[in-house]
Specification:
355 residues, Heme Oxygenase, Chain A, 2 domains, two-stranded antiparallel ribbon, Haem_Oase, iron, heme oxygenase (decyclizing) activity, metal-binding
């Protein structure tokens, strides 16, 4: 209840009720504030005084908190997604970024979009392809034909389809300026959590964080060089991006971008929801069949990580035989008593590491 009150206070600060017969940017504008869908218009006097970056930060704060509190987001951020689910999440992101970045290129000279258009710096579609290919252990040219991807596309989640369709719709419209809202929601989010996520993902899926293989999506270059960006460099990039957004002075464009940003957060939350639903379905039916030709890999960090390992019978027999042989050699060699026992323990430990 308290959170809802805070959200509505923010809504009243930014918005005022308009004639309900007038259309808005999208019908569910106020749903991001936890209220019943209503028709709002941005407060003209307030929006004219504030830079776009400030308006976006204030308007999307409740949506940002809601996204971070979702089950799917928490499992992703803690590295607890099964590996195949994580790969499919990257695949969904690739479709989002591939669509977004092609449309940003299409409108790269638009006055609202041009100041933040820098594909060499921000582009994520290519790093995502590299990570997906590495995780699947297939060439970059082959990952889209992998069973994990074909199964995703044969039953594309509604949330992913809605996201991609929305971006395409904006690009085809008479005013593509709201595409900036999707750049804001995605790129600034990636820049803010990139370093932490890179280490988390590398640890969860046993990746080499030094080489960067499998975690290129979370890595950016410096603003003015090809060197890898540090946390401080990423802050510099975010400041540059905000300055570019603030070059948008049109009240109409500001209104359109802020409205669209609320929807952009809803669409991103939808992607997290697909992972949550997938997890719930697997818990209900753990024996469900996987796509033909693909064996699901289990995450390195799961609730069952404390369970004891199991071994094939043949391996157990071979281990016992080797241990008996080691004991025989020690006895024949004259290593008995405490000295012999210590050597036997050492050899047994070595054998355990092999089997």
């Amino acid at each position: 209840m308290i959170q809802h009150d805070v959200q509505m206070q923010l809504a009243r600060k930014l918005f005022h009720r308009s004639d309900p017969r007038r259309p808005t940017q999208h019908a569910s504008l106020c749903s991001a504030f936890g209220a019943e869908p209503k028709i709002f218009m941005l407060n003209s006097s307030y929006i004219s005084r504030q830079p776009l970056a400030t308006l976006l930060r204030e308007a999307t704060k409740p949506s940002h908190d809601r996204a971070n509190s979702s089950v799917g987001a928490n499992r992703l951020l803690s590295g607890q997604l099964p590996k195949d689910q994580y790969i499919q999440f990257l695949m969904m992101l690739w479709h989002v970024y591939d669509t977004l970045e092609r449309q940003l290129e299409r409108h790269s000279t638009h006055p609202t979009l041009e100041p933040t258009y820098n594909p060499a710096l921000l582009g994520r579609a290519t790093p995502l392809e590299s990570d997906i290919s590495h995780l699947l252990q297939v060439p970059v040219s082959k990952w889209q034909s992998h069973p994990l991807h074909t199964s995703l596309m044969s039953n594309m989640p509604d949330q992913l389809r809605s996201y991609v369709d929305r971006i395409q719709y904006l690009s085809d419209s008479s005013d593509p300026s709201p595409l900036l809202a999707h750049s804001y929601a995605r790129y600034l989010g990636d820049l803010s959590g990139g370093q932490i996520m890179r280490r988390t993902i590398a640890k969860a899926y046993d990746l080499d964080v030094t080489s960067g293989l499998g975690t290129e999506f979370y890595t950016f270059k410096q603003l003015s060089s090809s060197k890898k960006a540090t946390q401080g460099d990423m802050k510099t990039i975010k400041d540059w991006f905000r300055e570019g957004m603030n070059k948008c002075k049109s009240e109409e464009s500001k209104t359109a971008v802020v409205n669209e940003a609320l929807l952009a957060y809803d669409l991103n939350i939808g992607l997290f929801d697909t992972m949550e639903a997938h997890t719930a379905a697997e818990n209900e039916n753990p024996a469900s069949e996987k796509s033909e030709g693909y064996t699901s890999e289990q995450p390195l960090k799961t609730l069952d990580s404390g369970l004891e390992k199991t071994y094939p019978v043949a391996s157990v027999v071979a281990f016992i035989a080797a241990a008996c042989l080691a004991h025989f050699i020690l006895v024949v060699g004259g290593f008995t008593g405490d000295k012999g026992y210590q050597k036997l323990v050492a050899i047994t430990g070595w054998l355990s590491s092999i089997f």
